[in-house]
Automatic annotation (TrEMBL):
Pfam families: VanW
Residue span of region Disordered: 298-333
UniProt protein name: Peptidoglycan binding domain-containing protein
Amino acid sequence: MTARQRTWAIAVGVAAVVVLAAGGFAAVKAQDLPPGTTLAGEPVGDPDAAVETAERIGQRLLSMPVVVATGEERAEVTAGALGVSFDVQGVARAAENATGFDDWLARVSGGDATVLPVGLFFTTGDTDELAERLSSDPTDGDIEITASGLRVSDAVVGIDVTPAMISEGFRTAVAALETMPFAEWPASLQVQLEAESVQPRITQVSVDAAVERIESLTDTPITLQAQAVPEDSQTVDGVGVPLRETIDVELGEQALIQLLAVEQDPDEIERQRLRIVPSAEQPPPALTAFLERAAIGPLPRIRVEDRSPTPTKDPLPDPGSGGPADNPAYGDVSTVTGRLVSEVGEPGLDPDLDATVEAIVAAMEADQPTAEVQGEEVTDPVDPAELGIVAPVSTWTTFYEPGQGRVTNIHRIAEIVDGMLVPPGGNLDINHAVGERTREGGFVEAGAILEGEFIDDVGGGVSQFGTTFFNAMWFSGIDIITHTPHSFWFDRYPAGREATIDYPGVDLELNNNTPHWILVDTAVTDDSVTVTFWSTPWFEVETTMGPREQTAEGFRMSISRIATPQEGNVDTDTFRIDYKLP
């Protein structure tokens, strides 16, 4: 075929196609859109169908659930609520434009099928409320200390979600729908946001550090110590009041925890934003009970000034069974006068709970095993009348020859016992109160009796003080617990009313069975020693003596004391004594 012939053939073919296309266009003119036209993968035959399909897709889009998540927080809304719409009008225009001859010609000429554009447009959605729902404020960690232990509140990190963040994430998710066939659209859109964390002021690091600190402080018990009067004390010491002893209580982990509090300090470094401080808001019962025991008054020291003169020696010319020393004038309490002066021997303590708690916590922090009760010293002198010490209730005087070594010992023991106080129900034990008689204690060697033998001993002669003291006991009416008569009778003592003492086994002890305190007042001269008890008169005392019965070595006698109290039962003591004559 020549070139001319080929050119003619092409022209004929093109004309045929045009004729066919024109004929086909005329035949399908009612369908409007070229065959195979789609919208989001959905076939559409004409613009009306395209609009209907667009509206159907748009409704699906508006109602599509959108799950917006930030880690564990999730919220569900519709796409329409977030401000997206399907561009139906844009689809209608595109469909109208796709009905022309050129589109048909391209299609019948073997071109690609027409794809109508998926048009989405965004409006301002309600993202503010959603951002608020998804956001959360941080929560400060904290520790509350209760009677049952620690109540720990963990710190919670907050989340800051902004409307712009939601809009951006939503648009990214929706954009994928523009190229996705409608039939493959997901049931819901998933929008995962990378929200910004908001740290609390008191972080979990702060909480954990505080818990660790509390556990470290309380893992070792603390022994709290104080001075107190023993609950069962019947003994006196020093100035004569009940002994003070060291008491203690062990505070374990739970008790120590209750003495702490936690305070927030956000300006500190992270590990120290919860400060552990002392707190007396909820003290454990063991501590409050202990402080009650530690509350003690001052040790009073009471003395007699401007005392009336002691009796002079005046033996009875016609002595009875008691001998020449049994002169009622030596025990005439009506002649005793004086002025009571009160001082503080040792301060008392008014415990301070707050200060004590601070001391305990300081010991915890210093890793020390003990702490002392803290408080204010009580230094106000006690009014003797408040103790019932108002007047002399008994007295006795014995005599000796001046200048002897035994006089030194009598003066020394009288000095030690002077001013001793015996509380109601308390005991006064001479050996315990005075202690061993030693040279270091101011005693000297002098004559004494040991197991019936005359010897020289340090402290010899103190038995004369014992006799003088015993007579004051006798006429006061108070309870005689222990006394030992001499084996020999000396006429400087009243027969039957005398007592010997020797450390440690031969003792002299009384019990104050009155409701009032007793003050022991002593006085010495060159030739006499006097013991006077000051208190409130409580007993009326009557003494009866039996006749002396001669024995091979001396004589035997009996003596009785009848003590009649203001309240209670009459007390009668009877003693039978065998004496040797020196």
